[in-house]
Amino acid sequence: MRPKTIAVIIVAAGKGERAAATGIPDPKQYRTIGGKPVLTRTIAAFLAVPEVTQIVTIIHPDHGDRYAALGLKDDRLLPPVVGGASRQASVLAGLKALAPARPDLVLIQDAARPFASARLIGDVIGALSQSEGALPTLPVTDTIKRSLDGTQVSTTEDRNQLFAAQTPQGFRFGQIFSAHMRAATVPRQFTDDAEIAEWAGLRVAMVAGERSNIKITHPDDFAHAERILTGDLAMETRIGTGFDVHSFEPGDHVWLGGVRIPYKFKLNGHSDSDVALHALTDAIYGAIGAGDIGVHFPPSDMQWKGAASTLFLKHAGELVAKASGRIVNLDVTIVCEGPKIAPHVPAMRTVIAETLGIASSRIAVKATTSEKLGFTGREEGIVAMASASIEVPRVD
């Protein structure tokens, strides 16, 4: 079976009047976010998908110079097409431009949605193997009221049956082209291409949309878009804490923070009993909701007898990376009467940094005594407490 040809229509024919800001004449699709025009980012999102074979952009008749100034160059980019007086007419112009090539599938994308991910685009394409149309949607979370006159509530809608539509919307080319041609002959304006498909009797599937796939419509949407680019909305910070204690037993050294320190005792435990790294490892696990050391490295498993605790710490760091997270900072406090910790702090920070692949400036190691009080004051053992601050992708 030959590979499918997949065309994309980018609808950029509007003047962007609702997003116009005082003193800024550029239509929204040509304004910049993060230093790049919105339209450039939208087109780039589809050029990044290898399955896409051609892209046509629909522009306003007055925007030829603006589009040319973008300087876009790619073999898959067709010359821009002038759009019509409505979005529906503009999409039809794009379909007519693609008709000689007769692609198998077509994706239709609003130029003002610059953040469609490769995953989202791929999901829409994938859904077309089973359905005649597909679009990303998000569940409606607000309570929706219906009003007949705009002043009084008539009824409350069942939001469990309501979904907000996004683009790209995908279709089998021949079917959506035929549906658009028919729709152009009736005295009705359709709000999106999925509505035309529904009206024409095509089956339209829903795939999971993305909160970051916003449509830039109003002036404050540009600030929203900038925050998405800088990660303020893409990531969230989580805090984990860890606590560990080990008693002393006869010996001549202790392991603390991955450093071997000569001492009159050693710490009792299944592994190397590095109380500082154990607390720190548990703090990282806690920040990403991954249990504790005992879950991943049970003391009943003899393979961890005498194991270096850097193995546990490295595993926690690998789980952060697997979750697409980032360690922001780590803080460890060691409570003991001895040994002296301060001379070894730089070495501890270095070991921790190298184990996790982060800068030592993100790591704090501190020590204190319990003023001769309690079991640490009686030199019966050592306590360590730790906290971990980690950024992970936001989950709504």
Corresponding CATH architecture of the largest domain:
Alpha-Beta Complex
Q: Roughly how many Å is the radius of gyration? A: 30 Å
Mean pLDDT figure = 91
- Tell me the structural class: alpha/beta
Q: Which strand-content bin applies to the residues?
A: 25-35%
- CATH top level of the largest domain is Alpha Beta
Largest sheet: 8 strands, mixed
Q: Give the number of domains.
A: 2
CATH fold descriptor of the largest domain: Spore Coat Polysaccharide Biosynthesis Protein SpsA, Chain A
Describe this structure in words.
- With about 400 residues, the chain is α/β, with parallel strands linked by helices.
- It folds into 2 domains: about 210 residues, Spore Coat Polysaccharide Biosynthesis Protein SpsA, Chain A (Alpha-Beta Complex); about 160 residues, 60s Ribosomal Protein L30, Chain: A.
- Helices cover about 30% and strands about 25% of the residues.
- It has 12 helices and 19 strands.
- The strands form 5 sheets. Strands 1, 4, 5, 6, 7, 10, 11 and 12 form an 8-stranded mixed β-sheet that branches. Strands 16-13-19-17-18 form a 5-stranded mixed β-sheet.
- A hairpin with a 2-residue loop joins β2 and β3.
- The longest helix has 13 residues.
- Keywords: Isoprene biosynthesis, Lyase, Metal-binding, Multifunctional enzyme, Nucleotidyltransferase, Transferase.
- One of its GO terms (molecular function) is 2-C-methyl-D-erythritol 2,4-cyclodiphosphate synthase activity.
- This is Bifunctional enzyme IspD/IspF.
- Its cofactor is a divalent metal cation.
- One of its GO terms (biological process) is isopentenyl diphosphate biosynthetic process, methylerythritol 4-phosphate pathway.
